[in-house]
Fold these 4 entries.
Entry 1:
Amino acid sequence: MVPPKAILFDIGGVCVISPFQAILDYELAHSIPVGWINHSIQKGPHDTGAWQLIERGECELNDEWFEKFKKQLSVSEHWSAYWRKTVGEGKAKARADGAVPPVPNINAKALFWEMMRTSRRPDPWMYPALKKLRKDFVLGALSNTVAFPTGILDDRGVLYTKGLTHLPAPNPHADDSEDIRDCFDVFISSAHVGLRKPDPKAYELAVKELDRVQRERGGQGVKADEVLFLDDIGVNLKWAKKSGLRTIKVDLGRTREAVRELELETGVKLLDEERAKL
């Protein structure tokens, strides 16, 4: 197949450890049906959901927002529908009386900060691949993000810093920059541009910026179908395809398989015999 001219990456769950892992761990630890938290986040609503607002940079990360986030995770109508569907599919144990149990009591602040801490660790397969691809391709990031106020403390009272946490030597990347943006030619943060995936305008902006960089390097520009996009959320990939981009799905805990697909798409050997020690 014809290699892409540019490669566009999601960050969480692709280039760094997925915050969904923190969500899964929280659900398992608190006996919450797996998938409920992601389901309630995706239910939004799109215009006013706490998670959607913070990722578009339309509100500040503070205690008021955490209260709104908790409410988003506690909508009884969403929970009843999800519980009945889950029970119907045999994925959860129904109560003897057939009644829907109370909505799970989720500590939204603790959950959020654990998601943020988890997603500071570079992915052991995808991160080294970024370093190898940089010299041959225009690399971009299109990430749904949060803008952190200066001096914000996490749920443990610790000053939060969003830099990458590289393992020390002999890790070959121990001295790399802690700023993930340094891995890319283009970095589009939803909270800073006011657009979040899967809004088609987000993909249009990404292609426009990748095209700009490629032309500045003396190329003939980049079209949507010459961009390969990697993401871990199905709806984001669905709308990327509708916007004309090529896509690779990165499943939770399976970034090695995604890097293998990336090898086939680019023609560049990316996987080492030994797993990178990050």
Note: The chain has a mean pLDDT of 93.
Entry 2:
Amino acid sequence: MTHTTALFEPFGLGPLALPNRLVMAPLTRNRAAADGTPTPLMAAYYAQRATAGLIIAEASTPNATGQTYPNITAIHAPGHVAGWRRVTDAVRAAGGGPMFLQLQHGGRVGHPATSGLTPVAPSPVPLPETIFTPEGHRRAVVPREMTLDDIRATVADFAAAARNAIEAGFDGVEVHAANGHLLHQFLAGNTNLRTDDYGGSVAGRIRFAVEVVEAVAAGIGAGRVGVRVSPGNTVNGIAETDTDVLHPALVEALAGRGLAYLHLAYADPDVPLFRRIRADWPGTLVANPVLPEISTEAVLQGSARLLAAGADLIALGRPFLANPDLVARLRLGAPLNPVRDRYLMYVGGAAGYTDYPALDEAGAQPSRSSMRAWDGARVV
């Protein structure tokens, strides 16, 4: 069996039986109601993509202060639970496999024009760029530095959000410690200027993330908890100066806790840090490949390289966005739908969301080059 064909083999994620190793990565799509409640359109969107081995549903805020942009999802009120229950029910009715929900607090990535609240962060360091709000792009505000009481309350909010997710029908949650949001802001030296136990040294900067994971695991069971990290990622103004020390320390602190998985964003098997994280992480590693383009060949080859380097599951974002039947297309070596106008990703409505055609609708056939990639993509 080649590493490419292994993509379509079942995988046991703890007690969960995944029908294949393809994971739909969390994708913020801004289709929720203004209060963060998932909509019926979202249920249709996720049900279309039910053939993924595992769906990690889009980032949802554990409290109102954590809201990043307009119309993102939340999981801190009964209405949110009911809305997400409609989504999980729709996916299961479509024959889907397990679903996790990503929990994300935006920290300084937020604005009073969106949430009605001043954003909070480890330190009063503003986002160095404008941020989209219901009133258009606005200059970022200086966030309020979190007190120790704020930290304790936010940790408790993550745990409560995880319990809400299980009530909503999810099999588990993913704690988002990546992409410049609150947990990543605590990790990075340019956004965490604290001199107390939550700042300064690497041990101090990883403390908040570890406490969040501990609380979530205590609330729903460690085997239901995944964690996403993105070492060295500079999105949202993050600048890590000690990536090769910081992230191994975080991995070491989380290893041995019986977590469901570690999700490594923008994974490159040629980077030494990837190999170190794989060696240090004792459980399931989900890897999100860096793709030069959204094509069948690129996805198959990028996935095969990561599997050969020790990844267990492959998380894909935009390929799933544009291809509701991505698993079938990759299995057949069929061409992929291109991602349409990027602005359609976030503007709301069905366009660029639920209107991407499946193979039988598009009348697409496997291309010869795709079939060559399928037949020959063996990575050693």
Note: The radius of gyration is 20 Å.
Entry 3:
Amino acid sequence: MTQRKPMTRIQRKNTEAILEAALVMFSQYGFRGSTLDQIAKAAGLSKPNLLYYFKSKEAIFTEVLEGLLDNWLDPLREMKEDGDAIEEILAYMKRKLQMSRDFPRESRLFANEIIQGAPRMMHAIEGELKELVDEKVKIIRKWSADGRIAEIDPYHLIFSIWSLTQHYADFDVQVRAILREDTDEIFDEAESYLTTLFTRMLTP
């Protein structure tokens, strides 16, 4: 197998610029609504220069999504079986909420891909994501069986955490229009509310 040569500093810089520009375009206009010309302009490159790094819009989109999925999985990977059960679940919720605050574009792009039927990442959802969720579900079931948390459906608990935290990124405009508060206030209040909600739900 031929090994890919390490990228030069300029190549790394241009690749990062392309992926950042693509994230902006894809999260705002979706895959179909974004064009290579838009991405190239946002990256400060010509279209031929962009195509030197990525052969197609599909290739750029796939690279962006792969990076998103890895970031998406990290907060759940950190849930440890030997920790305090309720605190571990609350910590996961807080990490997901933090991601919604810090990476709203990524969250919206991920959500849009799922809404479209996940045509470019179903293999990852059915593979790596499902395997990780199944692994954590076993831990949550054990906590419940041991009386460390209330009896609860682990899958729907995880789905609830996803929906209740990602709402603040995916529906950011609606949240801001209603609350008329700055980012820190919104997320501080959300964390306090969700901590109370899940603590009451999970306490035996």
Note: The chain is about 80% helix and 0% strand.
Entry 4:
Amino acid sequence: MWIDTHCHLDAAEFDADREAVVARAKALGVGCLVLPAVSTANLDTVRGLAHTHGFVYALGLHPMYVEAEPADALETLRDALARHRGDPRLVAVGEIGLDHFVPGLDRAVQERHYVAQLELARAFELPVILHVRRSADALLKQLRRVRVKGGIAHAFNGSAQQAQAFIDLGFKLGFGGAMTFERALQIRTLARELPLDALVLETDAPDIPPQWLYRTAEQRAAGQTSRNEPAELPRIAHTLAELRGLSLEAVAAATSANARAVLGPALA
């Protein structure tokens, strides 16, 4: 069975055919999706979808959206984590982190919410799902100060040294569609050379489409779409298998075991 460790199934891009998206994924052996929240507005939504389809979920505030959150957002998140503490499908605090790529975002606000959510994860004894975009060192600095039960560095694209630092802190590294691009040399090198027991697979659907779904700006303007979905995970995994010289079966077994090791046995 494949595990997609990062899928935004609640996204508006899936409103027209969400049931079919789930059915396609399950038909290809993608039996579990991890559904991370991104704001107070979708905490209940991801939980509901996880229970409806037999998946798992995470509750958190995404760094790109924290400036728009109400002043009591962290209290709302704490209340939700407390209310659902006994829910076996609640597996992490996420998606949280820092984004140093998008211009104009307030880094101080991001940092405050990130640290507060690490503290919540520690209080509720949950791992975290991290948004890492040109922010690995800043994330690691706080992880060394506020120790949590590991987690996943989603869509990892740092250096080998940063990768090892996350691994040393109990993290797995998420690889997905970006790995399928032949010009993504750094990501493909990491996917090939990092310890296999440190890797998990993800789609980030509907985002980060693999190479075969990519559309240029001109194509998108002409109406062609590039929506990613969890059914793409086995084909993405094929790239990892080729890079490492492994069978698909070996990659499925290893990455699924890694996901369960960090997020728990609910990822059945």
Note: The chain has ten helices and eight strands.
